[in-house]
Amino acid sequence: MTVAHAEPVDAARGWSLGAQVREWVPALAFFVGAILAWELLVRILGIKQFILPSPVAIANAVVTYFPELWQSATYTLVEILLGLAIGVVAGLLAGMVTAHFGAFRESVLPFAIAANSVPIIAFAPIFNNWFGIDKQLSKAMVAAVICFFPVMINTVRGLTSASPAALELMRSFAATDAQILRKVRFPAALPYIFTALRVATTLATIGAIIGEYFGAPKVSLGQYIVTYSSYLNFERSWAAIVFACAIGITLYIAVVVVERIVAPWTTDRTTRAG
Amino acid sequence: MIESSDIVVELTGVSKVFGLSGGRAAGGTVEALTGIDLSVRRGEFISLIGPSGCGKSTLLRLVGDLTSSTGGTVMVNGKTAERARLDRDYGMVFQAPVLFDWRTVQKNVELPLEITGRSKAEREAKAREMLALVELSEFTDHQPWQLSGGMQQRVAIARALALDPAILLMDEPFGALDEMTRERMNLELLRIWDRTGTTVIFVTHSIPEAVFLSTRVVVMSARPGRITRVVPIDLPRERSVETREMERYFELVTAVREGLRDGEGGAGVAPSARVRAEGLSA
Amino acid sequence: MTSELNDPGVEPVTGIDDVPDGAVPDARLSRAEVELDQDLEAYQPPTPRAVAATRRAWVRPLIGFISIVVAIGLIWEGAKWIGGDPWDVSSILGIPVSIVHTPPFEWKPVNDINLPHTWLIVESFFATDANGETLFQGLLGAALFTFRGAILGFFLGATVGMVLAIVLIHVRFLERALLPLLVASQTVPIIAIAPVIVVGLKAGWLSIAIVASYLTFFPVTIAAIRGMRSADPRAFELLRSYAARDRTVLWRLRLPASAPYLFTAFKIGATASVVGAIVGELPSGIRDGLGGTLLTAMQYYSIQPERLWAAIAMSALLGIGCFMLVVLAEHWTLRNYRPTEPGAAA
Question: Does the reported pTM lie above 0.90?
Answer without folding.
Answer: no
